[in-house]
Design goal:
Helix content: 25-40%
Bound molecules: zinc ion
Shape: elongated
Structural class: alpha/beta
Largest sheet: 8 strands, mixed
Oligomer: single chain
Radius of gyration: 25 Å
Distance between the termini: 23 Å
Strand order of the largest sheet: 1-10-12-11-13-16-14-15
Length: 432
């Protein structure tokens, strides 16, 4: 199977199911930007691909940042005076603010409330909160549960550790014919949240597994990293390797029912921007293209001005546009195998453009060659139009993606036409 091939012409549900099953296995873990939950997640990904795990010690300087202490948690709860656990980490790992320092004390309700987080607009949902870079502790709960809290004393227990350790990330390089690299990056630092983090992890895992056995022009580097600090750490330790990245995608939020969205790289006109734009414009239904902004996921780091890498982001509904984002409602019910399979297919199609794009020169440029006598042309149709466009624009300068864009035809048809014309001796591929 070539990289551009769709997993399943009916919507990629088989690979979508595989992604979903991996997500379901990873869903219960209490991940954070460091610690055992993240490490276990990457170890499970290793069952599918020979991911290399890197451990970067706490305190390592990475550009303007410092790798934080490692956070681990065993248990946490709040108990009322009757001895009932009214907030219980064992029921949902979202109940504890990520990176909460260990605590064991009894506090009055007014004091407890200073450390509680809820979402009044969605009173049944538990929010997801973090405090990575300011030592603090806190609990998250549904607003309905919050309203039910009576005056009194509460026993607060967070059995966590925040100590020198390391930041873990996973990396795999699948070498291709060229040293030029395509980067696929997914963050793996959120606890039980499905669309935000696990959908990207699942898709990237199955993509790496399948690309590993496909013939390929480019080398592919996959990163499974904690958001922000992981990207900064990788870039800081790999400044030279980063220069080999010719295209890249940050994958996140690829499992919900919304349509595809591609956020352009800072460059705006990089090959990945043009390839992704092309595939999304021709998708059914068409996807949305967003301009770059210096906010969002790890494209912020890859597209920081010192690197300015051609890395965009593929999602379905962008974060901030769905209320389930960063809440307990971003669960396995919020994602589905069809959407995951469709996102997978879109990534394969985008990579297929990058892999197969070439520049040709028309060997018979003086008036049109007679296609009929070569059995190439019967009656006017989309494919026949593609033949004419490829012949007309193959000047040794414009590539097939340029021709697809200019003609309004899809890349696959243009590619097929170029192959037929080459075989008929009418086109010659330029040396790349
Ligand atoms: Zn997030």
């Amino acid at each position: 199977m070539d990289i551009g091939d769709r997993a399943n012409p009916n919507g990629g549900t088989a690979v979508g199911q595989e992604i979903f099953q991996l997500m379901a296995e990873l869903y219960p873990f209490c991940r954070s930007i460091t610690g055992r939950g993240l490490r276990r997640t990457l170890e499970i990904v290793q069952r599918y691909i020979p991911l290399r795990l890197h451990e970067v010690p706490s305190g390592t300087r990475v550009f303007d940042w410092t790798v934080p202490k490692e956070w681990n948690i065993r248990d946490a709860y709040v108990r009322n005076s009757a001895g009932e656990k009214i907030i219980d980490f064992q029921k949902s790992n979202l109940h504890v603010v990520s990176y909460s320092v260990p605590i064991r004390k009894t506090v009055p309700l007014a004091e407890l409330k200073k450390h509680l987080h809820t979402i009044p607009e969605h009173p049944d949902w538990i929010p997801y909160r973090t405090s990575y870079y300011r030592e603090n502790w806190g609990f998250c709960l549904s607003h309905n549960d919050f309203l039910g809290l009576a005056e009194g004393e509460y026993e607060v227990v967070i059995d966590s550790t925040l100590e020198n350790g390391s930041l873990t990330y996973g990396e795999i390089l699948l070498e291709g014919a060229k040293k030029d690299e395509i980067l696929i990056s997914a963050h793996a630092c959120h606890p039980s949240l499905a669309n935000d983090n696990l959908s990207g992890v699942g898709l990237a895992t199955m993509l790496a597994k399948n690309i590993a056995t496909a013939p390929r022009k480019f080398s592919y580097r996959f990163l499974f990293i904690p958001g922000t600090i992981g990207a900064i750490t990788w870039l800081s330790l790999n400044e030279q390797a980063a220069r080999r990245i010719k295209s890249g995608l940050v994958l996140t939020g690829v499992g919900d029912v919304g349509n595809l969205t591609y956020k352009k790289s800072r460059r705006g006109d990089a090959e990945i921007d043009r390839a992704a734009g092309h595939i999304l414009r021709h998708a059914t239904p068409p996807g949305r293209i967003q301009d770059f902004s210096p906010y969002g996921y790890d494209e912020r780091q890859f597209c920081s001005p010192g690197f300015n890498l051609p890395v965009g982001r593929l999602s379905r509904t962008p974060y901030g546009e769905y209320p389930e984002y960063h809440t307990s409602a971003d669960s396995l019910e919020f994602v589905n195998a069809n959407s995951l399979g469709d996102s997978y297919d879109a990534v394969r199609a985008i990579l297929g453009v990058l892999e197969n794009d070439s520049t040709f020169v028309n060997l018979n440029p003086n008036c049109e060659p007679q296609l009929g006598k070569r059995g190439l042309y019967a009656s006017p149709g989309t494919y026949e139009m593609a033949l004419l466009w490829v012949l007309n624009l193959s000047d040794g300068d414009l590539n097939l993606l340029n021709i697809a864009e200019r003609s309004g035809l899809d890349f696959e048809t243009i590619l097929r036409a170029a192959a037929a014309l080459s075989q008929a001796g009418l086109l010659k591929k330029m040396i790349e």
